[in-house]
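subagent[fold] <- orchestrator: predict structure for attached chain, return tokens only, no commentary.
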Amino acid sequence: MGHGRSRASFLVVLLAVGLGALSGCASAARPTPSKPAPSSHPSPTASPLPTSVTVISPLGVNFRTEPSTTSSVVGVVAQGVSLPIVSHSSSDGGWWEVRGSSQTGWITAQPQYTSTITFQTFSSGAAPPWSVMYPEGWTFAQENSGPIDFTGPAAAAITFTSATTTSQLPAAALAGQTESGVSSVVVYGVTAPLVTYSSTTKYEASVEFQAQPALAFLIQAQLPTKGGAPTLNLFLETVSFTVPATPSP
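subagent[fold] -> orchestrator:
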């Protein structure tokens, strides 16, 4: 009877040891949670605002109290004026908050009226007067009273030829150019034909129009294919040949 009780006790001890060993194995096999590896791609950050904005519209732009065309107008910012940027609003077509000489206010951010590019201004010395703004990095050359040749990066070139009437202007197409299409463009309130030419390496175009009774233009462009059309538009949007009347938004 004593031997039976001892044998039972021995079996209980073995069972307890076995269960403990199994429990220890299970604990050892359970992996320890690891911390996720840091991402090799940093979190996106907001692009910094440009430091200043320049008015390119020949009519100037309204200086408003709020970023809206319904807000009060407290002044007009003329073409060529650059103002420090305070902030930006994407509402109502986009607006720049800028710091004027005595107060802050808002001007439109629409690219046909303002630009964060730095510009210089060419003004004709002959009557009737006209002017055009050209981006930083561009230069111009003129012999006597002949065409004005603007040259920029990557062999970009835009030529302005003026005359009294369009009949006095040279041929719009250069030697070897073949017309590929015609659309329309507005240059300081005057609608003119924009002619493009076939090319696999460049953006080639010309604009010819009568600006005033005694002033006609031929504008010819040979620009890199990528970004060529916007560059030409930037020049066309800054051309001025009459006294400003009504400012833009």
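orchestrator: received. Logging for downstream: The CA atoms of residues 208 and 218 lie 4 Å apart. DSSP finds two helices and 16 strands in the chain.
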